[in-house]
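Fold this: ABC transporter ATP-binding protein
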Amino acid sequence: MTEIAISLTNVSKCFKCYSRPADRLKDLLLPGKSRADEFWALRDINLEVPKGQTLGIVGRNGSGKSTLLQIIVGTLTPTSGLVRVNGRIAALLELGSGFNPEFTGRQNVFFNGRLMGLSQKEIEAKFDEIVAFADIGDFLDQPVKTYSSGMFVRLAFAVSTSVDPDILVVDEALSVGDEAFQRKCFARIQTIRARGGTILFVSHSATAVIEICDAAILMDRGEKLLFHHPKFVLDKYHKLLYAPEDKVQHLREEIREMQKTVSYDAFKQNISILENKLEISVSEASNSEPDLETEPENIREFYDPELVPSNTISYVPRGAKITNPHITMPDGRVVNHLVGKKDYIYTYSVAFLKHAQQVRFGMLVKTVSGLELGGASFTASSQAIEEIEPETIVIVKFRFKCLLNPGVYFLNAGVTGLVDGHFTYLSRHIDVAMFRVQPETNSYASGIVDLMIEPSLTINADLIEKHQEIEVF
């Protein structure tokens, strides 16, 4: 039987909002009719996270993510419901939590460590490791109120993960660190996962959630709208995020109904269809698979009409419509089975139904798991097409060299513009097309991307009796 690390049953949290300080005082002195407005940050959250698993939590600002984490950590008390946490928990929440700004970094290491249940001797034993990981130099003996946000996160993460937590909670904090430190943090997170730790991970980075998490939940307006595979949840989250305000409620209902039709055992990677069949995976085209014994020079591109995505996510259009996304060879022939190291063109058409300003066109290539491999914008980040008139059709083409290793990949298509003074998607399709890179028999490459590595060996015969020296360069 799977042991549960975190369990929430019908958890709700209500905050009382007073328009005047005097109303708060009256409520304390004269109980009875409340003078406060109620704001429900969470409503009836039910959730179980098994030990050793990683759960991603995504949602718009104000959706209840941070409130949920604070209740799990214990810094907030739920208004109703039951919370069970099994194991030592360490949290990296909003900047400043658990640290005294007047204390030095050194003092805060001991202060925060004691808050997490470590003894003085345990902290002293781990102190050098914490300092080495944080790598903030002489600032260790300066008050933390003088720290930059990046330095603060370095120290906070080093302390939080040094206690060998059974459960680690990370709420957006890693977004402020530099890339090298972020990589070190993710390596530490992977170490915690490898030894069986449970992780709750909040991030707006789709790539990070997909790479790290076993499952994800979508929070919105205090409600757990969706629990599913990370890529599936993120697709719905992005659709909700960029929807016009008058379409949001309809999308919420759509996602809520979708959750009722599919039961997802995220941690066993098993999907069980309860009612209407909901395709969320790749439609494989096994009948058209090229012969693996074919010599590389005989591998040819071709188009398979069965190799199509089964769950394209389309944003609500805002005056533009993307049509006919496909890949062609330079001579114009449409293909979706490609050969490595050759040139292709990804193209789609955009019909503008309304006047558009500051327009940009883009594309993105992803793996089956949703990992973003690379993309491009038709215009530079500082430039855009100033205006496009209604009833205009634009054909967009992106030429690329296929440096991907054999496998199946997905494509996005999007067009952005200025709406009510803000840049947003005029039209966007996630997983709108897919292609397969065919196997090669004489390829040295491994992983996802072919870096065109050419291995070479040099053996020093003079030292063969002592040892064989091999240089790879």
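The radius of gyration is 27 Å. The longest strand covers residues 422-437.
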